[in-house]
Amino acid sequence: MKTQTVLGKRIKDRNFAAAYTNIAQGRKSGISHLCADNQASFLPHIYMNEKDIVSFDVADYLGLSSHPALRAGAHKAIDDFGIQLASSRVYLSSPLYQKLEN
């Protein structure tokens, strides 16, 4: 397998070399790893460079995570059922999953 040199790094995998180049160019251009000026709790609206914009980089561009009814429902579910740690259903399933799926 031929080794490529990308930005001073020796890389064997051609696809990885292309991805590495693209990421490095994005970072150099200042378009990666952006940071909003405000807290994430204001989603979907964020402030970037002192401008109010809608963030489409998360699945909450409709603002549902801050909708009062959904927040109240989440609080009720935690109060009723607690917080379950994630586990594979192959290992152990909860009766709540069956109720939800049926």
From TrEMBL:
Keywords (A to Z) from UniProt: Acyltransferase, Transferase
GO molecular function: 8-amino-7-oxononanoate synthase activity
UniProt keyword Transcription regulation, yes or no: no
Superkingdom, taxonomy of origin: Bacteria
Matches recorded under InterPro entries: PyrdxlP-dep_Trfase_major, PyrdxlP-dep_Trfase_small
Documented EC number(s): 2.3.1.47
Protein name: 8-amino-7-oxononanoate synthase
Gene label: bioF_1
